[in-house]
Automatic annotation (TrEMBL):
Pfam families: Pect-lyase_RHGA_epim. Residues 30-54 are annotated as: Disordered. Signal peptide: none annotated. It comes from Streptomyces kronopolitis. The lineage of its organism: Bacteria, Bacillati, Actinomycetota, Actinomycetes, Kitasatosporales. SUPFAM superfamilies: Pectin lyase-like. This is Rhamnogalacturonase A/B/Epimerase-like pectate lyase domain-containing protein. PROSITE patterns: PROKAR_LIPOPROTEIN, TAT. Residues 65-147 form the Rhamnogalacturonase A/B/Epimerase-like pectate lyase domain. InterPro entries: Pectin_lyas_fold, Pectin_lyase_fold/virulence, RHGA/B-epi-like_pectate_lyase, TAT_signal.
């Protein structure tokens, strides 16, 4: 979150460090230990951190094949090689800074042991900087096939690592119902970045966030989310396992850029405790349907599911821009929001690819349950299929506040586009069918 300082640097920059060193050297050469003139800032005011210990020995880049013995043939269990690579990286942390890049060459790697890729439990390690680097999507493939699926993750970070990067990697679930990443935070686990990565197979969770405070500043760039999700690809607020119920809500700043979200069924994002979420660019498609009814979701698969959990007031902000959605069945939902405050904004988005089909007219791909404090809803320059549904939450509020500006409705006239409580929905320069 904005305003936090890193535990490894205390917020000091390279310029601060150089300035402090220069000032100290000047003072030593002059032999002056008297107080500076009034109003002059001393080098001590910069509070530059003192680097202790020695830089760890060993290579800064480690290869899981050449250095750790992985086979990458898709048949040999490479769990031990990946565990060895992570242990090596964790052992080279110096002054809370990670010093190792883990290279994973082209190949198919079978991993059966839980937490083999990242195994940081109980917050024993406070480190900043860990990087896993593959050869490219479809070139470096990790198949996670544990012997049991329940509560089993390929990566586990319990309040230990910040600034974790995954680049050009593919992750496949070989045991249906296993999960990719469990992240528990009381302030340390944050700043994840996924670049040109891909997920396939049937997962329970992609990334499951838990704990108190942070679990924030996470970014996905040019990634493909495939497969299927029994819960959601990104689920924020897994439990109430929190040191502070008020801070359970601090799930902030998630960016998805130029994504290819094309999965079979399940939810993409689920945020019951609020959050600040931005999705820009790409194509979002649910290609199939759930194999059976879910107790929580029925038959629906939802890109953005924001139910209302028991929580304190927190940021509730969602923005989608320049995205093409495909609503292929009546069970595909773009937005299902019951937040009790905040804003929801769609700008220059299009979900009309299948507006010509017979189910489209009766579909409701955007659904809101709104109270006295919102959320406030806005659609700008969007092309929209079906109807949008607005229902009061029963708290006795004045009803929804929503605005559609320069939008095109493919299946209904402007007067028939809103289902439910639409008395406080306004339209500006919109076109109906």
């Amino acid at each position: 979150m904005a305003g936090r300082t890193s535990p490894s640097t205390g917020g000091a920059t390279r310029r601060t460090l150089l300035a402090g060193t220069a000032a100290a050297l000047t003072g030593a050469l002059a032999g002056c230990d008297t107080a500076p003139p009034a109003g002059r800032q001393t080098s001590d005011d910069a509070e530059a951190p003192v680097v202790t210990g020695r830089k760890p020995k060993g290579k800064d880049v480690i290869d899981v094949v050449a250095d750790c013995g992985a086979k990458g043939d898709g048949r040999t269990d490479d769990s031990r090689a990946f565990a060895r690579a992570y242990s090596y990286a964790a052992g080279r942390v110096w002054d809370h800074i990670g010093r190792t890049v883990v290279d994973i060459p082209a190949g198919t790697y079978l991993i059966r042991a839980p937490d083999a890729l990242l195994n940081a439990r109980k917050g024993k390690l406070k480190a900043n900087g860990l990087r896993f680097r593959g050869a490219g999507k479809r070139m470096t493939q990790l198949i996670f096939a544990p012997h049991r699926a329940e509560d089993t993750y390929l990566c586990r970070n319990e309040d230990s690592w910040a600034n974790v990067a995954f680049e050009q990697l593919g992750f496949a679930c070989g045991t249906p119902g296993a999960s990719f990443f469990y992240s528990y935070s009381t302030g340390q686990a944050q700043d994840y970045r996924f670049t040109e990565c891909e997920w396939t197979g049937e997962w329970t969770y992609g990334v499951a966030l838990d704990g108190t405070n942070t679990n924030s500043e996470m970014r996905w760039d040019a990634c493909r989310v495939g497969g299927a999700y029994r819960k959601a690809f990104l689920y924020s607020g897994l439990s109430q396992n929190s040191l502070s119920r008020k801070q359970q809500d601090q799930f902030l700043n998630y960016w998805f850029n130029d994504m290819k979200v094309e999965y079979s069924w399940g939810n993409f994002l689920e945020f019951p405790y609020g959050g600040s979420i931005t999705c820009r660019g790409g194509s979002y498609i649910v290609t199939g349907s759930r194999p059976e009814d879910s107790p929580d979701y029925g038959r629906t698969s939802t890109f953005f599911r924001f139910p209302r959990g028991p929580h304190h007031d927190s940021v509730q902000r969602f923005h989608a821009e320049d995205i093409r959605f495909e609503v292929r069945t009546p069970d595909t939902v773009v937005m299902d929001c019951a937040w009790d405050s905040g804003t929801v904004h769609f700008n220059d988005c299009d979900d009309t690819a299948n507006a010509f089909k017979s189910f489209a007219q009766d579909s409701r791909p955007h659904r809101y349950r709104i109270g006295a404090r919102g959320p406030l809803v806005r659609y700008d320059s969007c092309q929209l299929s079906g109807q949008h549904s607005y229902e009061p939450d029963g708290t006795g509020g004045a009803g929804p506040r929503a605005r559609y500006d320069m939008c095109h409705f493919r299946n209904h006239s402007q007067q028939d586009f809103i289902a439910g409580s639409g008395d406080r929905v306004s339209f500006v320069d919109c076109l109906g069918s």
